[in-house]
Amino acid sequence: MIARDGVLLNPHYQKMGLYGSEYWTYVLPHRVGEAQARRLATSCEPISAAEGAEIGIIDRLAASDRGGFIATVLDYATELVVGGQADALLYRKHATREADEQRRPLETYRVRELAEMSHDIFDDRHGFAHARRTFLTGRPAGPTLPKPRLPAPRLP
Q1: 0.85 cut: is pTM over it?
Q2: Residue pair 155/109 in contact by the 8 Å Cβ criterion
Q3: Cα 57 off chain centre by
Q4: Domain count within the chain
């Protein structure tokens, strides 16, 4: 993943009373390790693209301007193709995915995350309805509820 310098990554699912989805329980620990993934998922603090690069979420940091970003993307793609790294990179990714799939199918991550999100949305177990109203209207809806404290995410 390539990101522009100055971009903020904002992992705020939990602040909204949501568990999160998009295979984050598979991808994030692979990128940053389980301890860092747990910290990111529970602290809900924004991190800069530069910090993301330091911890492994971002593969390459690009200049903040559009031209610099495009140049970085094109340079990276050229390195992969001309340097012969593309095939090796794809092979490693494929081998990792195959081994992971043998241990635990990717579909199980999706099913679990969506089940957790379903409880958050329909059972409102962590204050999602209030957080959603507040987010959409820009003002608290009714009495202010205490900040939801979700249990630490269970990572595989």
Answers
A1: no
A2: no
A3: 8
A4: 1
The alpha helices in 60-105, defined as continuous H runs, are 66-82, 85-103
Q: Enter the tokens of residue 43.
A: 């602290």
Containing structural domain, residue 38? 2-137
Helix (H, G, I), strand (E, B) or coil at 63: coil
Enumerate residues 6+ apart whose C-beta is below 8 A from 10. 46
Residue 2 forms beta bridges with which residues? 60
At which residue do the structure tokens 């995350």 appear?
113
**Is 144 among the domain residues?**
no
Task: Give the span between the Cα atoms of 50 and 79, in whole angstroms.
Answer: 21
pLDDT digits (tens, 9 = 90+) for 5-64: 999 998 778 888 899 888 999 999 999 999 999 999 888 889 999 999 999 999 999 999
